[in-house]
């Protein structure tokens, strides 16, 4: 018992180490990519955990097959000789393909928005965060001109501290953008196109999340389905196979097996 537990602990530790190595190689440059990566981390974490559980229940076939399906939907069904496993596998392949499609479209829309900002918004800085992109969606420029972000900062400072020039200056210095961060859309329509591209990326990211949830549901449903199939087969075996044991007249022990077809 202790030896088996040590072996399981070693297997689990190896899985965790491999998973950490995997995470260290996952770059995240923007919100959409971070969101999709978090979904991947959740799904892969569950799969690593289920792999450990399979090792723990290796000597319990019904539970083992159920957890096989939890790792790869359809695997447990096929192990039981049930062809419904092919349906679960096909659904899994289709769902993962769909999720990768949505993620690639989300990244593509972000790249198109960045290129649009450079060519139509006179963007000078290429290493921006989501907060700056959000400001670019709301303001026609970064400067002190009407409709610009820095101009709105000045107006806000004067409204909040109308009779306090010192606090006005402090608020402005704390909130204005540096000159290195510059854009100028020229008009509201161009800014609207940029915002539309960014929104499209978020839509595809949301679609990817929905598909990710469906993938998890496919694993859960396959797990439950395999567990039911395994229990049915176990009960069928118990009902169709009967063992009799005892002693004959000469007190010789015997064991009889009756199989009903």
Low-confidence stretches: 1-9, 22-29
Gross geometry? elongated
Radius of gyration: 31 Å
Average pLDDT, rounded to a whole number, is 77
Name the helicity range.
over 70%
Q: Got a strand count? A: 2
Order of helices and strands: HHHHHHHHHEE
Structural class: mainly alpha
Main sheet attributes: strand count, strand direction, barrel closure: 2 strands, antiparallel
Question: Largest sheet, order of strands side by side?
Answer: 1-2
The CA-CA distance between the termini, in Å, is 39 Å
State the helix count: 9
The portion of residues forming beta strands comes to: 5-15%
Keywords:
261 residues; 5% strand; elongated
Write the layout of secondary structure elements.
Blueprint: H1 2-24, H2 31-56, H3 61-71, H4 75-79, H5 84-120, H6 130-138, H7 149-160, H8 165-175, H9 188-240, E1 241-247, E2 253-259
Antiparallel strand pairs: 1-2
Quick rundown:
This protein has 261 residues and is mainly alpha-helical.
Q: Care to describe what's here?
A:
This protein has 261 residues and is mainly α. The chain is built from 9 helices and 2 strands. The protein has a domain at 2-120 and 211-259. The model is unreliable at 1-9 and 22-29 (pLDDT under 50). The chain has a two-stranded antiparallel sheet. The protein starts with a helix and ends with a strand. Helix content is 72%, strand content 5%. The protein has helices at residues 2-24, 31-56, 61-71, 75-79, 84-120, 130-138, 149-160, 165-175, 188-240, and strands at residues 241-247, 253-259.
